[in-house]
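Researcher: Re-running this chain for the archive, since the previous output was lost when a drive failed. Same request as before.
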Amino acid sequence: MNKPIMAKATAVWLVDNTTLSFKQIGDFCGLHELEVQGIADGDVAAGVKGFDPVVNNQLTEDEIKKAEGNPAHVLKLKFNAAAVGEEKRRGPRYTPLSKRQDRPASILWLVKFHPELSDGQISALVGTTKPTIQTIRERTHWNINNITPIDPVALGLCKQSELDAAVQKANAKKAREGGVMSDDERMKLVSTETSLAMDPEARMPTAISGLETFSLSEDEDKPERRYDAESLFNLPAGGGDDDDEDDEDDKGRRRR
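Model: Regenerated structure tokens:
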């Protein structure tokens, strides 16, 4: 159930101006029954000025009278401006001034590590405009050489759950379109929680020429080949005698 604005101040007013039970006031204001009793005893919310819910269009006098006559009646909020919430705005979200200088770094990070995200999704995540994203994609931003990619979650520009939701949405869209994704793209499209839970897979390098013909298994049709010292070094028979004759010729030349 929605709660009134300035709940504790509203409870102070109801305690002072009505005969409602502590439970009724507590349920309406989102407080514990003992906390409302503490307000009545002066131990809680001392010095808090009461907030009239009737004048502020949150309760009607008829509703209060009905509740006073029936202790089991639950007060119903008439109107709560704070509970209505802000309407979903179109375009980028508001980014505090202190964090606006970090947006290019987060955009570069998203473009680099999540290229599947659309400009609209990036704009919604970090609160920027599509022309800015385009300049970073094309590396025509005026400060592109000094921008270091930084995770927008680490910068506090968005929540991890929001980033994961955007990635999952991009994953579903790409799957519907039937696009073929590489292993790296598939890893980028899963959420952080899913990625951390996955078992690491051994990967073989693919940039080595001729690796596609390499196999760790031996051909069963070929006989097993055994090697010894003579076959490995291919020593000729009687090689020792020739070496002795060469040594004697060298000695004869030195004597001359």
